[in-house]
Please model this.
Amino acid sequence: MAASWLSKAVFYEIYPQSFFDTNADGVGDLPGVTEKLDYVKSLGCNALWLNPCFDSPFKDAGYDVRDYKKVAPRYGTNDDMKALFAAAHKKGIRVLLDLVPGHTSEQHPWFRESGKAEENEFSHRYIWTDNAFARGDGMPFIGGEMPRNGTYIINFFKSQPALNYGYRDIHEPWQKPIDDPACLATREAMKDIMRFWLDMGCDGFRVDMADSLVKNDGNEKLATMEVWKDIAGAIHAEYPEAALVSEWNNPGQALSCGFDMDFYLDWRGNGYSVMFRDYDIPKFGEKIGKNNSYFSLGSDRDVSGFLKDFLPRYEAGKDKGLWCLISGNHDTVRVAPGLDDRERRLAFAFLYTMPGAPFLYYGDEIGMPYRWVPTKEGGYQRTGSRTPMQWDRSENMGFSAADPERLYLPVGPLEGAPTVADQEKDPGSFLNFVREIIALRQSNDDLGNYSPFRVYSAEEGSRLFAYKRGGMLVAVNPSAEELVLELDGDYEILYAIGDSRTENGRLLLGRQSFAVLKPRV
Ligand code: NOJ
Ligand code: CA
Model:
């Protein structure tokens, strides 16, 4: 049984270094998150995902952990984390931390030990070949760095050596089966880290690259699933209200091995990306897409590309847990300015009326744009989605009182920049729209996280898309034309964007409109 609070969970993702700086060093911090909890609550969000805030050399913005049990000094202390958990719980907000189980920093003491020539407790905590001139059997590897006579496998960047959970398909003597004592020890080390934070008050974890643990595991990921059944099983037994969400993008797999939630990730050309992310904006000289997202006014897309990708995977996971839609995250290009205000309203109305627990990336609620900025801490093109939260029009847009030179990332020009303060004052702002659509979801169980989804109308070549959530009917028309939908009963319009009306058993959806209908009683 999944944590009971997940049925109503609406998440807000915070990139801690860019959210709010309380000590004027230019970097967002944990006390800054605590200070802004009322803001999070005002959105209607009742759960947080914090990107990694652990001790790290920050070669991948903290996804290279040096000490899993210590808050990075730039964010504060373990006591600050404890205080954040307590303050959040008082306000009814849950907190997920980011667990990186697949790799550590090359500066982690386990790795330093494992690279020694003499055999020791950590010699097999990472995947090492048996010779300094050996290759990685298809996996990226590094040699020549440490006294040990071997090369080691990396999981992502060079700075991120892969932890050893073993191999499923073994063809080299250095590849260990998943039940080798060394691989079991890695699992136990992860459980120990999870217990450490759960005991302090955290409510669960977003799990980085959850599908990457066992190597040579094929597409079925059978051995990786076995590892997760063990880890998640142990944690759920001890902490029944803890929640786990995987970065996996395969709910059929992830939700079968102990995850309560899985993310629908933005992979170029997949269902998510054709809905939200087919943009004509430059990315380091290259263009992202053709400006043909489903929600773009001028697009000729129907939803078939989305449904072909979404439906089989939704069906595979729907009885097991939640497959979650995101507004964006720290790895994707932001949804603005690829979609303008109206297009984004339709996109978010869709997002917040779909099943799964929705995730809002900080700043997306005010339409913070993707901006080109030089790379920081291994961000590269992702850096433009990680800029400081735009609170108001004071210095550094209210993010920090530091000298602008010292900011983690620069804030953009003030002119035309969306800010929380401005949008608070405007009842018609995007911020207030986001509040409204989240409130609509939260006050109608049919629109809730576990409530069933089924396609009602998605004709090929048509820009109209309609779906049922429980007994409710949701319809969207992102085009410039009025479109007509035949109704299967007597409905009234509960919520609408743009012009729509019911007439003689039909729903007339005006240009760029959206409507939620409920049966008339
Ligand atoms: C996925 C994370 O979201 C990303 O930011 C990170 O660089 C990689 N995993 C490696 O941990
Ligand atoms: Ca700070």
